[in-house]
Amino acid sequence: MPDKTKIQIEFLINCSPKVLYNRLSTASGLSEWFADDVRIKGKKFTFIWDKTEQTAEMTLQKENRLVRFSWVDEEEGTYFEFRITQDELTGDVSLLITDFAEEGEEEETKNLWETQVSDLKHLVGS
């Protein structure tokens, strides 16, 4: 299995960390921008796109600051993470996304996140 490359992308999002966190950590929030549908069973989230399903476990969670999902059916150590930061001086809220892409698919993965985060920004009025 080819190694995956860790990628990080940062987006400025004009809303409170609390509002943003709700969109990143709940089935209803994630289904508004991340997947067509999201089902939760315990800490396992099943994301549905068209006819594809992928399950991830919420492995890390800090209220209004961080959510990490580890893919259940992928190699150990692959996950995607949403980290919310707020600049103390300006109050600007940033969303830092960490993900892993197959070699050669880094740009495609970044473009996909940009599209999805664009939907998220629209939802929160950013």
Summarize the entry for a quick read.
With 126 residues, the protein is of the alpha+beta class. It is built from 3 helices and 7 strands.
Give an overview in words.
This is SRPBCC domain-containing protein. Residues 1-125 form the START-like domain. Pfam families: START_2. It is a single chain. With 126 residues, the chain is an alpha+beta fold. It has a single domain (4-124), classed as 2-Layer Sandwich (Alpha-D-Glucose-1,6-Bisphosphate, Chain A, domain 4), CATH 3.30.530.20. Helices cover 26% and strands 44% of the residues. The chain is built from 3 helices and 7 strands, in the order βααββββββα. It has helices at residues 17-25, 27-31, 106-124; strands spanning 4-12, 37-41, 44-49, 52-62, 66-71, 79-86, 93-102. The protein has a 7-stranded antiparallel beta sheet. It is globular and about 40 Å long. 16% of the residues are buried. The model has no long low-confidence stretch (mean pLDDT 94).
Q: From the alpha-carbon coordinates, what is the Rg to the nearest angstrom?
A: 14 Å
What is the helix content? 25-40%
Could you name the CATH class? Alpha Beta
Name the average pLDDT: 94
**How would you classify the helix and strand content by structural class?**
alpha+beta
